[in-house]
Amino acid sequence: MRPKSLPVHLFDGEHRIIDIGCGSRKYPGSLGIDVVPGPGVDLVADLGAEVWPLDPESVDLVIATHVLEHLDLISTMTRIHECLKPGGYAWIRVPHWSARDFWKDPTHRRPFHTGTFDYWQPGYSPDYGFDRKYEIVHKALHLYGYLEVHSFRSTTRWIAEPLRRLIDAAANSSHFLCERFWAPAVGGFCEVEFVLRKP
Description:
Blueprint: E1 17-20, E2 31-34, E3 43-44, E4 59-65, H1 73-83, E5 84-95, E6 135-142, H2 146-150, H3 154-173, H4 175-182, E7 191-197
Parallel strand pairs: 1-2, 1-4, 2-3, 4-5
Antiparallel strand pairs: 5-7, 6-7
Helix pairs in contact: 3-4
């Protein structure tokens, strides 16, 4: 389910959407890009390369679902910024640092914190010299990731879904308190979601 902070007009079929690292689960209506050929992959490309096979400022929305943890984050955020139009958006879902399964995958480079992308905001201190800036439009913790939510058994959905909503609401009422005191106590949060906007 896409966040309400993403403008609806982006999905009207007239705007260019790319789904990087899409695998076989490409977002409908998008151009799927991945390093491995397969169903749903429209363009095979190395996302770790210095240049992506896209025209500069040609994309309205970049979708990155559980792919940034496999890549060098700083260079990838530069590539995303280069291909986005001014005012374009990046919709990002990545493993949270408290996610138990993050540490299982040997291809994962780093987990994420709700404050990870603060460093790309204009005027943020400390300033690490990132010349490509993003405005943070939305951030949210999710107890279950996009795959787990759809795999609930019908026999347990009646309790799992209300519990998820309750815990998500508590976590997103204060990211600081959740991450500082109780995220691991609920088994960890599978993912953190961001919507970023290129100024």
